[in-house]
Amino acid sequence: MECIEQVNDAHKSEYEVLPDVTAAAPGRFHLIGEHSWFFKDKTLSMAINLLVHVAVSKRSDFALKFYFPQLGEKKRANLSSIKFRREDRWANAVKAIIYGYASGGFEMGGVNVTVYSDILPSAGFGITTAIKVASAIALKKLFNIKCSDAELLQVIERGNKLFLETGNYIADNFSALFSKAGKLLVTDHARASFDYIDYPFKDKLIMLTDARVPRISVWNETSIYEPQNALLLGELHELKKSVYGGWKYESNVTDVNEVLSVVSEDTRRRLLCIMREHGDVLNAREALKKNDFGAFARAINHSHESMKELFEISCPEIDWILKRVGELEPNLEQLSNPVTCGRITGKGFGRCLYAFMRRTDEKKFKEKLNEYERIFGFHPSTYEVLPSDGAHIVKN
User: Fold this and answer.
1) Is 88 a catalytic residue?
2) What is the DSSP letter of 39?
3) Mean pLDDT over residues 355-364, rounded?
4) How do residues 162-202 score in pLDDT, each as one tens digit?
5) More exposed terminus of the chain, fewer Cβ within 10 Å: N or C?
6) Rounded to an integer, what distance in angstroms lies between the CA atom of residue 329 and that of residue 335?
7) Are the C-beta atoms of 206 and 384 separated by less than 8 Å?
């Protein structure tokens, strides 16, 4: 939902001028495959109608000023000495984009920036990526920068890798930049490309929930991001022209066990999860094409079980909510096709989940969230979301 008047008012109250340019970018969540990018697999993503607005206006000096009204926070920097500062938190996302442009030889100047979002970056939901992408297209317009989509992606990549010193997750960037209403994105990391897939389940409610469980990592996910592990999984690729992307993982248990016998048991389980995730993306995509919610739900639920049992990033609180989602259909055990599904999403080890359900189940679901709060003591936030458009300039 656009809120341009509020954005304009916030910018003017802080800087005494209206913004020259305002851009919006969507939040997002990954349905399946967000942990398999290192292995050049695939990710199924949805941009959602939780928007971040970034308003900018030119300055006559080289100062950089940042304002986030919902947090009541102000930050500042200078173009000539821009650097990462941990205490700048959300403002580092905007500074990373400014650095990405400047380090690529694009001319920049001083700027006033207002970040406006009712959903805070700490919630997940791709809000930090949305800040970066909205900043990128707002600054491009403000300074009349001539660059292609490929060059814009390079700006974001420089900001991520060189300024923030983090990974550059292209499924995040693709979702925020290129999404279309009513469609999901499948990112093929091997080809650094994406495809659209229509979202057909218009009768379903999509509920994205911040369970408010503090993220506490129980193991270091980067420990499996080793070249030798990628080589092992590469041995298990089976070329298949009839499959989306041209390949799938080997399904022969004996062959899989033989290849993975050289790694520890913990690593083996997590690599098996990566393999299962790839299959779940393919199955979910095929179900979307066929308008087969039952098959789609089985892929989603199967992926959550993998995240829980093999990748070990779920937690009792999120598992409890998702079990209640499954119980929204009282005769579920007798059904061959589930009518609900859900999964942990994001970094894992807590915080976020999504669920697909019948619209008639909304009241029951929210009652279960109230029960969750009484049992676990965390106050969840839940949002009905829809597949939405990517980043765009907002007309003032």
Assistant:
1) no
2) G
3) 97
4) 999 998 999 999 999 999 999 999 999 999 999 999 999 99
5) N
6) 9
7) yes
